Amino acid sequence: MIARLLSILVVSLSLVVPSAAGGDLNSGMRAHIKDIAMLQSGRDNQLVGYGLVIGLNGSGDSLRNAPFTEQSIRAMLENLGVATEGGRARARNVAAVIVTATLPPFVETGTRIDVSVASMGDSTSLQGGVLVMTPLKAANGDIYAVAQGPVSVSGFNAQGAAQTITQGVPTTGRVPNGAIVERKIPDSFGNLDTLVLQLRNPDFSTAVSVADTINAYAKRRYGRNVASEKDARTVQVKKPSGVSPARFWAELEGLVVETDTPARVVIDERSGTIVMGENVKIARVAVSHGALTVRINEMPRAVQPEAFSFGETVIEPSTDIQVDQDDANMAIIEGPNLNELVDGLNRLGVKPDGIISILQGIKTAGALQADLVVQ
């Protein structure tokens, strides 16, 4: 029985069931409505464009591998009135890039927004480059902004004859306040009779809490209920007469509500990052974790023939195999709260990748009372 217990990673021993007098399992937090919800009519819009970054110090696209860069150079020069017939461009200081930006709601023409720039050719770095005037289009094909300016790059690339050092991503960058909004997105916010709120983190309990909080305020302020929950993400609020939508939303966004979030554990196996929410609970389990390491070293030896013999030198194989097994520690883990859960995992003395395996095993055993998200 003991051997069978040690052969598996996790065995569920007992399940902790809170009593009815113990209160709510998921203790929520208090937050403003504007921090947990946003207006449906106040959504962002994405913009994209194709442009050129010039002024690079020999780190631009090679025109043989990126012919579209040469075509773009010729088109740009022709638009500027420069004849380009005959000859072939040999410049290595130009890179073709994709420019992206997010157009915030309620912006007027002339507003400046940030843009992101990413190389689409074989350029090695955008350091020191300047983005040439680039129209930015929305999904409908209309131009809403124009971007231009020096590119700010956080990464760098240093290359020598025998070594190359790269830090960060030198082929992407930003142009702070590099785009000017040329067209305003039409909106009817000023004529709305119903405000639609969308929760950033969908949850039925939070949606009901938002609706109840708004109704409690509206009952005192306007004498009637105005909000109703539609689903886990959406809350509809009817605007009272005699007040503008902007002023009405300004009154509501500062209200404090009791939020509730589902218990969730997020695991990033690539970086070994583990993020656990406050509401994560774990039943009492026994965990055994040990590591088996096998090292195989090949050490071939040359065997020489005896003197004055007609033998030949041969290679004799020689293999050294070492097997190391760390002590497998068994610990009892029980997590009625986040601190005790983390302390119990740390008592095992394992690294983050080991904790990831343990959490996955505990979830399989049915003892992890949370949603396990693996990225």
TrEMBL record:
GO cellular component: bacterial-type flagellum basal body, distal rod, P ring; outer membrane-bounded periplasmic space
Stretches assigned to coiled coil: none
GO biological process: bacterial-type flagellum-dependent cell motility
GO molecular function terms attached to this record: structural molecule activity
Keyword Signal: yes
Compartments (UniProt record): Bacterial flagellum basal body
Record's signal peptide: 1-23
Pfam families registered for this protein in UniProt: FlgI
Chief localization: other
Keywords: Bacterial flagellum, Cell projection, Cilium, Flagellum, Periplasm, Signal
Subunit structure: The basal body constitutes a major portion of the flagellar organelle and consists of four rings (L,P,S, and M) mounted on a central rod.
HAMAP family associated with the record: FlgI (MF_00416)
Primary role: Assembles around the rod to form the L-ring and probably protects the motor/basal body from shearing forces during rotation.
Name the UniProt record assigns to this protein: Flagellar P-ring protein
Species of the source: Limoniibacter endophyticus
Name of the encoding gene: flgI
